[in-house]
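Deliverable D2.4 — example input (structure tokens):
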């Protein structure tokens, strides 16, 4: 049995969209077709009893980040996904430290989005 990469101290990134659960599932399907991401992306349900009647409905995707080029594969795959979307969609990526990036798919500049994704996913090392 393999250890869960999230519990090994690796960060998890959350991806939320303004398109609802169907858009999240479409994104999940897209990301699962990337060999480097398969098994690292999972739907995250809204907490039950959060005041809304949406307990059990997906509110985000969780992505287990770690070694092996996962961040680069995610940046490339998300850039391609956004480029191929026909609908207007906004989504937010949030690292476990709270740093986030909002992307409006209607106004996508692929090289700029790719650069911003890479900066979010691979923050510069902090020198002691």
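Example output (designed residues):
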């Amino acid at each position: 049995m393999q250890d869960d990469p999230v519990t090994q101290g690796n960060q998890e990134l959350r991806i939320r969209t303004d398109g609802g659960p169907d858009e999240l599932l479409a994104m999940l399907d897209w990301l699962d077709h990337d060999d480097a991401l398969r098994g690292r992306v999972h739907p995250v349900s809204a907490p039950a009893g959060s005041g809304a009647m949406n307990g059990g409905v997906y509110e985000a995707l969780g992505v287990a980040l770690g070694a092996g080029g996962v961040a680069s594969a995610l940046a490339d795959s998300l850039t391609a996904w956004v480029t191929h979307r026909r609908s207007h969609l906004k989504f937010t990526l949030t690292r476990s430290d709270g740093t986030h990036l909002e992307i409006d798919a209607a106004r996508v500049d692929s090289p700029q989005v790719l650069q911003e994704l890479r900066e979010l996913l691979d923050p510069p090392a902090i020198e002691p």
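Residues 79 and 111 are 9 Å apart (CA to CA).
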